[in-house]
Amino acid sequence: MPETVTAKLLDHPRNAWYVAAWDHEVGRKKILARTVAGRPLALYRTEDGRAVALADACWHRLAPLSQGTLMGPEDIRCPYHGITYDSRGRCTSMPAQETINPSALVPSFPVVDRYRYVWVWVGDPALADPDLIPDMHQMTDAAWTGDGLTIHAPCNYQLILDNLMDLTHEEFVHSSSIGQKELSESEFVTSHTDTTVTVERWMHDIEAPPFWLKNMRDKFPGFSGRVDRWQIIHFEAPSTICIDVGVAKAGTGAPEGDRSQGVNGYVMNTITPETARSSHYFWSFQRNYRLDSQLITTQLRDGVHGVFGEDEAMLAAQQAAIDANPDYEFYSLNIDAGGMWVRRILERMLLAEGRDHAPAPRRGAQLVR
Amino acid sequence: MAVSRTEVWQGGTVVASRPLTPEIRRIEIEVDDPAPVSPGAHIDVRLTIAGERDRRSYSIVDATDEGRRIALSIYTSPVSRGGAAVMNALAPGDRLELTQPLNDFPLRPGADRYVLIAGGVGITAMVGMAASLRARGADYRLLYAGRSRPLMAYVDDLREAHGERLRLHVRDENSSLVVPELVDGIEPGTEVYVCGPIRLMDAIRREWMKRNRPIADLRMETFGNSGWFDAQEFTVRIPASGIEARVRPNQSMLEALEAAGAEMMWDCRKGECGLCEVRVLGLSGDIDHRDVFYSERQKDARSKMCCCVSRVVAPADGAAVVEIVTS
Ligand code: FES
Ligand code: FES
Ligand SMILES: [Fe+2]
C-alpha cells in the first residue's frame, strides 16, 4: 500500500502510452532521437507514413541508430558499420557476410499516431492497447482549433502534474496574466475514479484577469464588465491533464451549462517522463470560437507560452531545491487534494508493475553543495 | 519486444524434477529474485562439468507467479557435452546459480499471422510462445516434429491448449514435415519462429531463400548442438604451431583446441557470429557444418568452419582428420 509520507518524486509507470513527439516532428527527412520513460528511441516514418520507434542503440556496438540513414521503404541503416534493420527492428543485412545472425535485432516499440501526437509504449508490448490512450479529442475535433509547443522541463514529471492539478498557484506565479485572488478564495470540488481525477472550481461575478479580458474581446468586441470564471481540471492516468477553462458574462448561466455568452478554451497537457529528473511537457491551447483566425491561434499560443515559461522557471527551481535538501519532506495543504489523488493512482500503477514508487536518488545528491 | 541482454545472476532452488520422455526431463526451479518471463526467454546456468566451471543455456518452458517458479526441459542427447548429466542429477532442495531470464528470441506482437515450428526438444522454446499467442487471440499455428511420439514432450498439454492449431509430424508415423510444402503453405505477412536441430533450420532457411521471402520474417533459435551426422571423434591439427588434438564426441573442436593450448577467438559459441572461424588446409572426411553463420555456398566450399559447433565426420575408409589455420 502507498506510504503515508508524500513521495517527493515518483517513478513513472512503464506500461503506459506516452507522447514521444508531435506528429510533424517524426518524418523521413531526419531521424528523431528522443528519450521516453528512460528509453532512448530513434523515431522515423516508413515510406507509407507509419511512425516507427526503435531502440536508439544498434545490436552490434550500440551506435545510435538515430544518426543513421533511412533506406528503402522502411529500413534504417546503422551509421557505424552499416547493419540495416526493418521497422520491426529485425536485421535485414549485415556487412561482410552472406547470412544474418539470427539473434540480431533491436527492440521496436508499439506506436500510435493520434491527436496530432506520436504515442509510444515502452513497457510490455503485449499490453499495448490503443484504447488506453487518454482522450484528447479537442486536438483534432473540427469544433476546436489551436496550437501548442513542447517544454523540456528539468524536473520529475510528478512536479508538473502537481502544478497542473492545483491552479491556485496562478495567483502567485502568473499574476500579470491569469492570476487573481479569487482563485484561492473560491471553493473547489475533487472527484476521482480508478484512472481519473477531476478538480472543478467556479468563481462567480469577478473581474476578468488580462488574459481572459482579451479573449472575451476577441469574441465580443468592446466587452467590459464582470464575468463568471471556471477551471475544470481533468487528469487521466498516467500523465495527461486536459483543463476546461473559460469565462462568461456574469450571470448568463455558464455554471448551469449555457456558455454561449462566454469564451471557452481547453489547455491540453500531456507529460512524458524523460528521466527521473526531466520531462517532455507537450501542451496546446484549443478554443471553440473564431475558429478561422490564425491571428488568435498564434496570439493564444504565444500568450500561453509566456505563462508556461513562468511555470517552467518555478518547476526548475523546485527540483533544484528538492535535490539540495534531500532530508526535508513534503507536506500537504487542502489545495493538494487533486494532486494527491493523482499520486495515489500512479503509486497503484507502479505497485501493479511490481515496482517501488520512488526513483533512484540522484548519484551524489547528498554531496551537492 | 525488448531484448534483455543484461545478465543478472541469482540463486535458485530445485523444487521438482521428473522425466517427460526417456530423453527429456522437466526441472522446476524456484528463483531467489524473480523477474518477468517473456515468451522465447532462456536462462543460463553455471555448472561444474568434469571439474570445470561452464555455462549452459536452457529455454524456459513455462513459469508461474511472475517468474518465481520456472520450468526447464533438459534433453540428454547421446553426444551431450556433459551439461545434461549434471542437470539431470539435480534433486529437490539442490541449489544452483542461474541468470534472470534472457531473451535472444523474442516473440513480436502485432504480426498478421504466426507459424511456430519446433523440432524435438526445440519445443521448449515454443510452449511459452504458443501460450502467449493464444492468450492474445493471435492467428497462429504450431508445428511439432519428432522421431516418435513417446520421445515428444508436452504433446498432451499442447493438444489440450491449442487443439487444431497444433500439428504433429512424427517420423515413425510417416507424417514427417515436408519442408518445401511447409514453406509454400506459409502466407506472406506471416512471421515464422523455428527452434530445433540444425537440419530443420537449414532446410527451412534454404527453401525460404529460394523463394526470395524476406529473411527478417524467419526467426531462429539455435542451440548449436545438433548436426547432420552423429558426433564422432576426430583429429584436428594446426601445422603452423604443431598442435594436434583429439576432439571427443562430447566436446567441441573449440574446446579441444583451447585445451591443447591454441589461443582461440570466439564470442557466441553457438554458431552464429563467425568469430571462431578456422580455415581448412586439409581434410580427411567431411565437415558437418552446424552453424548458421555460413551460407550454403560457403558450406559447400568446405574451406572454412565455425569450430565452436561444427565437426568432422570420417570418410568411409579412414579416420577423420582436419588440418587448419587459426586466425
Ligand atoms: S554499431 Fe551498428 S553496425 Fe556496428
Ligand atoms: S563463436 Fe560464434 S560462431 Fe563460433
Ligand atoms: Fe501555471
Which characteristics define this entry?
heterodimer, A: 369 residues, alpha+beta, Rieske Iron-sulfur Protein, 2 domains, 7-stranded antiparallel beta sheet, 4-stranded antiparallel beta sheet, globular, B: 327 residues, alpha/beta, 7 helices, 18 strands, binds FE2/S2 (inorganic) cluster, binds fe (ii) ion
What does this structure look like?
The complex is a heterodimer of chains A (369) and B (327). Chain A has 369 residues and is α+β, with helices and mostly antiparallel strands. Chain A folds into 2 domains: 17-122, Rieske [2Fe-2S] iron-sulphur domain (Rieske Iron-sulfur Protein), CATH 2.102.10.10; 135-353, Naphthalene 1,2-dioxygenase Alpha Subunit, Chain A, domain 1. In chain A, 20% of the residues lie in helices and 31% in strands. Chain A has 6 helices and 18 strands. Chain A has helices at residues 157-165, 170-173, 182-185, 210-219, 294-324, 337-352; strands at residues 17-22, 32-36, 39-45, 51-55, 69-71, 75-77, 84-85, 91-93, 108-109, 111-114, 117-121, 145-153, 188-192, 196-207, 226-236, 240-249, 262-275, 278-287. A 7-stranded antiparallel beta sheet of chain A has the order 12-18-17-16-15-14-13. Chain A has a 4-stranded antiparallel beta sheet with strand order 2-3-4-9, with no helix packed on it. Chain A has a 4-stranded antiparallel beta sheet with strand order 5-6-7-8, with no helix packed on it. In chain A, strand 17 and strand 18 form a beta hairpin. In chain A, helix 1 runs antiparallel to helix 6 (337-352). The two termini of chain A are 35 Å apart. Residues 363-369 of chain A have low confidence and may be disordered. By secondary structure, chain B is α/β, with parallel strands linked by helices. Chain B contains 7 helices and 18 strands. In chain B, the strands form 4 sheets. A 6-stranded antiparallel β-barrel of chain B has the order 1-2-5-4-3-6. A 5-stranded parallel beta sheet of chain B has the order 9-8-7-10-11, sandwiched between helices. In chain B, a hairpin with a 4-residue loop joins strand 4 and strand 5 (69-75). Chains A and B meet through loops of A and strand 11 of B. The site of one FE2/S2 (inorganic) cluster (FES) has 14 residues of chain B, from loops.
